């Protein structure tokens, strides 16, 4: 079995600095090292383009401002797989 390289990795265009409007977005709670851990998981398990940004959000339960990590995926199937399979999301 031959492994084919990901063209986005070779060209440095896989991880984007901002989340484009057409990307599927997911918000997760920000904790220590969340961004690095999520980035490492996405790089090893998924193939499409993505972006990770730290943002602020107003909590619907407490009405307080909270820091969240917003992750955008170009492919909505990868966003669904991330929500179902990423072990970092299971222990909140």
Could you give a short description of this structure?
With 92 residues, the protein is α+β, with helices and mostly antiparallel strands. It has helices spanning 7-11, 34-45, 76-85; strands at residues 15-16, 24-29, 50-58, 65-73.
Tell me what the structure shows:
This protein is of the alpha+beta class and 92 residues long. 29% of the residues lie in helices and 28% in strands. The protein has 3 helices and 4 strands, in the order αββαββα. It has helices spanning 7-11, 34-45, 76-85; strands spanning 15-16, 24-29, 50-58, 65-73. The protein has a 4-stranded mixed beta sheet with strand order 1-3-4-2. The longest helix has 12 residues, at 34-45. The protein is globular. The relative contact order is 0.24.
Per-chain topology:
Elements: H1 7-11, E1 15-16, E2 24-29, H2 34-45, E3 50-58, E4 65-73, H3 76-85
Parallel strand pairs: 1-3
Antiparallel strand pairs: 2-4, 3-4
Keywords:
92 residues; alpha+beta; four-stranded mixed sheet; 3 helices; 28% strand
- Classification by helices and strands: alpha+beta
Large-scale geometry: globular
Strand elements, count: 4
- End-to-end Cα distance: 38 Å
Mean pLDDT across the residues is 86
Low-confidence stretches: none
Order of helices and strands: HEEHEEH
- Compute the number of helices: 3
Q: Give helix % range.
A: 25-40%
Radius of gyration: 14 Å
Strand arrangement in the largest pleated sheet: 1-3-4-2
Q: Into which percentage range does the β-strand content fall?
A: 25-35%
